[in-house]
């Protein structure tokens, strides 16, 4: 996978997979931002229509102005795209014009978000983390630009920096904090036990971490996670502070069954600014 996605034309040769007798090149020749591919593959993997736990796109930097707004494509790029055959546009974007490539990524993400903005369950868990650069991104092979690029990125990620691309957040640091909370919350899920009745829910809170990640799970438990049941209109029960079995990464909880079918379990940890919904997927296998 890594060999394929890094095989950018004019920089690296196509990756040849001997077992399949197939050559692969950078996927950005078709889609600079694979968000639509992700959406399609998700539908194939999971047949249910539940919203995703989180959708995270990580960019590699895009030129932005002092207000944090991405700079629009100029006339030279528009004219070039009209003159070049459609099948070659991707090659030019990757191999010859890094500015247009990053702008295409941004445009494809914004197009995806425009279809989800009316659905709060989805739009609230969609995130695109990117770096707003003062100048155009360096070429893929411009190794000499790395030290200054690293310094600029570190400055951009500081909590005090307020020049940010996503206007929903004050800074990149705040946005990353929200993403970290949602990723942590998505590690937990619940499975209803057979002992449940019409009045009582007996559930097991479990964790998606593998058994080999014992120390990581202990860190989560030591952070003192609390849970509660929430419907669209109200909080149903007091805060639950379960005792997790460190051997099986689970804890048994019991609460009154909600009258509504639309209910969720949320998690809160020390120093978090808000509660976050746990995973909707009971099993990732």
Automatic annotation (TrEMBL):
This is PNPLA domain-containing protein. The lineage of its organism: Eukaryota, Fungi, Dikarya, Ascomycota, Pezizomycotina. Keywords: Hydrolase, Lipid degradation, Lipid metabolism. Residues 1-39 form the PNPLA domain. It comes from Trichoglossum hirsutum. The keyword Cytoplasm does not apply. GO terms for cellular component: membrane. InterPro entries: Acyl_Trfase/lysoPLipase, PNPLA_dom. GO terms for molecular function: calcium-independent phospholipase A2 activity. SUPFAM superfamilies: FabD/lysophospholipase-like (SSF52151).
């Amino acid at each position: 996978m890594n060999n394929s996605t890094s095989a950018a034309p004019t920089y690296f040769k196509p990756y040849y997979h001997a077992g399949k007798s197939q050559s692969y090149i950078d996927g950005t020749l078709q889609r600079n931002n694979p968000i639509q591919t992700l959406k399609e593959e998700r539908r194939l993997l999971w047949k249910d229509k539940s919203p995703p736990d989180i959708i995270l796109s990580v960019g590699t930097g895009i030129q932005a102005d002092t207000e944090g707004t991405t700079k629009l494509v100029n006339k030279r790029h528009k004219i070039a795209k009209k003159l070049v055959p459609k099948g070659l546009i991707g090659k030019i974007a990757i191999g010859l014009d890094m500015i247009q490539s990053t702008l295409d990524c941004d445009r494809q993400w914004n197009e995806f978000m425009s279809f989800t903005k009316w659905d709060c369950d989805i739009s609230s868990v969609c995130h695109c983390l990117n770096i707003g650069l003062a100048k155009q991104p360096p070429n893929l092979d411009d190794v000499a630009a790395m030290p200054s690029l690293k310094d600029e990125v570190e400055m951009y990620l500081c909590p005090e920096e307020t020049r940010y691309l996503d206007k929903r957040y004050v800074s990149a640091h705040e946005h990353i904090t929200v993403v970290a909370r949602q990723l942590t919350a998505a590690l937990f899920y619940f499975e209803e036990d057979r002992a449940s009745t019409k009045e009582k829910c007996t559930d097991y809170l479990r964790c998606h971490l593998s058994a080999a990640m014992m120390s990581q799970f202990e860190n989560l438990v030591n952070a003192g996670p609390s849970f509660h049941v929430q419907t669209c209109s109200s909080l149903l029960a007091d805060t639950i502070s379960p005792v997790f079995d460190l051997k099986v990464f689970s804890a048994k909880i019991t609460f009154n069954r909600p009258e509504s079918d639309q209910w969720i379990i949320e998690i809160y940890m020390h120093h978090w600014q808000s509660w976050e919904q746990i995973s909707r997927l009971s099993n990732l296998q």
